[in-house]
Design brief:
Elements lengths: L1 E7 L5 E6 L2 H9 L5 H4 L5 E8 L2 H12 L3 H9 L12
Antiparallel strand pairs: 1-2, 1-3
Length: 90
């Protein structure tokens, strides 16, 4: 499974990315080994995610989300899909 996700950074901003292992990626961001953007804005928490069957779908969705307005991204985050998927917790 592949995921497109939004993280809420400690400064209140949102970060969008994609991964094939959501729990490990969130942990990497919090360890300072994720994106340069989140490294200086830790800790981060998962604000929202979507599941995709392929890497290319997840990457396309990431690109589309990055084009959304801040308000639209905040609306997505407000949906509160934050519990890690069962298959991804290992």
């Amino acid at each position: 499974m592949n995921y497109t996700y939004l993280l809420r950074c400690a400064d209140g901003t949102l970060y969008c990315g994609w991964t094939n292992h959501l729990a490990a990626r969130v942990a990497a961001h919090n360890a300072g080994k994720g994106a340069k953007y989140t490294k200086a804005r830790r800790p981060v928490v998962l604000a929202y995610y979507e599941e995709y069957a392929t890497r290319s779908e997840a990457m396309r969705r990431e690109a589309a989300i990055k084009k959304l307005t801040k308000k639209e991204k905040e609306e997505m985050a407000a949906l509160g899909r934050t519990e890690l998927p069962v298959d991804d917790e290992t």
